[in-house]
Amino acid sequence: MRGQRLRERSRQVVRFFHSRTLDPKRLREEDEVGVVRLAVRRAEFRSVGVVEVGRAHGSNRREAEVVEDHPHDGYAEFHRGYLVEYDREGLIVDLRNNGGGSVSALLLEKLRRRRLGYDFPRWGVPESYPAEAPRGPMVAITNEPAGSDGDIFSHAFKQLGLGTLIGKRTWGGVIGIWPRHPLADGTLTTQPEYSFAFDDVGWRVENYGTDPDIEVDYRPQDYARGFDPQLDTAISQVLDDLAKNPAHAPNPADRPRLGRPPLPPRG
C-alpha cells in the first residue's frame, strides 16, 4: 500500500519523517530525515543505483558543506552511497555541484573496476572479484557549478570510457591553490600553485570546462515543480545501455561436482 502511494506521487517531492509517535500533528521540523525525489519510472528505476559525489547537503549555506572539499570526508561520503548501490544493474554517478578536492583519482579507480569472476562462499551470496566492482553500465551527471576536481572527475569519466556524461558544461577551473600563508590578523593568502593538463585536450579544461556527451538543461521552472530532467535523462540512458549490455551476474549452474566417483560394477 505504501509503495503504491509513492508510485502515485511520481515527479513530486515527498518528505519523510521519523517520529516515535504516529500522530502527524506532533511531528516537528527536526524529525525530518530526508527528502526523496521519486523517479518518473519508479518500477524501472529500482534496478539502478545513484551515487552522489561532492553534493552539497543541508538546509542553508553553513550546513551545506561540499563533502569533497576535505579528502577524507569526501572519500567516506562517497562510500556511504557507493557500497549500497554498486551491486545494482546500473549506476548513475551524480557529480553536480561538486566543489572540488583531491580524491577523484581514488573514486575513479573504484568505478573503473571490471568484474572478472565471483567468490562463492558456503554461506551467503556470491561476491564479485575484484571486490566492490560495478555490476553494469554507468552514466554520470554534471553541471555548471561542478569545478576544480569536479571538472577533472567529469572529463576523466569520459576519457576513461566509463559511460555517458549528461548535463551541462562544467565550471572550468582546474588551477589549484595552497592556502598555506597565514597573516597576523588570522586570515591567509592563496595563490595559483597547480595547473592541470589532460592527454587529449591539453590545458583547455581551464577557463572552459568539459562538455557533456548529452546536454540537458535544468531550468528554474523544472526545479520549482520538483522535476529533474538531467536525472530523468540519465535514467533513460542507463536503461538503454542496460538493454544493450545486460548486467554482469554470477552463474553457478556449471559448477564442478567433486563428490566421490561411482564405483565400477562388480564383475
Task: Describe this entry's structure for a reader.
With 267 residues, the chain is α/β, with parallel strands linked by helices. It has a domain at 43-175 and 208-242: 2-enoyl-CoA Hydratase, Chain A, domain 1. The chain is 25% helix and 18% strand. The protein has helices spanning 2-8, 42-45, 71-85, 104-111, 149-159, 220-224, 229-244, and strands spanning 13-17, 32-37, 48-52, 90-94, 117-119, 127-129, 138-142, 163-167, 176-177, 181-182, 188-189, 192-194, 214-215. A hairpin with a 5-residue loop joins strand 10 and strand 11. The radius of gyration is 23 Å and the shape is elongated.
Descriptors:
267 residues; single chain; five-stranded parallel β-sheet; two-stranded antiparallel sheet; 13 strands; alpha/beta; 7 helices; 2-enoyl-CoA Hydratase, Chain A, domain 1
